[in-house]
Amino acid sequence: MLVSVIIPAYKADQTLRSGLSSVEAAMSRVRLHGINVEAIIAADDGQPHRYKPLESAHSFVRVVPGGKTATGPSRARNRAIAVANGDFFAMLEADDAWSPNYLEQLVPMATSAGAAFGRTEIVKVDGTQLDIFPRKTDQQELTLEDLGFWSASFHPLMTRALLERNVLDRAQDVWSAAVTIAKLGGSAPLAATACYQLHLRDGSMTTADVYCSEVDRSYARLAKLALSYKNSPPGLRSRLQNIWRQKSTHNKKFMHAQRRRAEAGRSLWPSFYHWRSAQT
């Protein structure tokens, strides 16, 4: 059994080191069970040579050179997917990492159900935990409603049959999670303790007014797309649409909170996730 880890990369040769080390640690715990891993890095910065040392350091890594520069994470993922050989696929952002038990918990559940999710741990710049979603430790499924309520990124490990390519410029990770869950009927298995570790960075783009406005326009487009999405059961399309409506509501509240803080001379929230964590 082979798991393909798909990683779009833009000037990320340094941050990728910890992510690949986490994949290697997770792989070491399942190798005896016949589970192997390939990590495919899709260079999107026109500099594939930046990532060649990672191939030398990790035997399971392959680098896919890009054509045009800065095509976006969706197109970069598609290039990696095109050369992947996996029976299962998992997505990893170049800044992020996995808990050591990630594959150990997710692969058996995905083998049974078609896909599975880890919890999303939000990690601050200093390496400490900000929050973890969902918070209920006894929650065993991730639903479409969870995606809207928490407004966090969730990343499935899925079979090749459930994999889809897209060319979305914004929120492609949430769209992928949403359509995967929809194909499974509206909920998917959730690991007990395995986590996708989302690492926040200094100067997060999510604090910028322009970025938040662009994201909100993307949410409006995705809400319309959800109603006509042909690969989702018709009865679930309104639930898909509600994800984007709820995320838009959270985004607007975050922008409003930032403006109020600026007007009051207070420091801004360091990221959307800092604000969201304080609301629940």
Major sheet size, sense and barrel closure: 10 strands, mixed
Give the integer mean of the pLDDT values: 91
Low-confidence stretches: none
H/E element sequence:
EHEHEHEEHEEEHEHEHHH
State the end-to-end distance.
Answer: 40 Å
Number of helices: 9
Radius of gyration from the CA trace?
Answer: 18 Å
Please tally the β strands and state the result.
10
Structural class from helices and strands?
alpha/beta
Overall shape: it is globular
Architecture overview:
With 280 residues, the protein is of the alpha/beta class. The protein is 41% helix and 21% strand. It contains nine helices and ten strands. Strands 1, 2, 3, 4, 5, 6, 7, 8, 9 and 10 form a ten-stranded mixed sheet that branches. α5 packs parallel to α8 and α7 runs antiparallel to α8. The N and C termini lie far apart (40 Å).
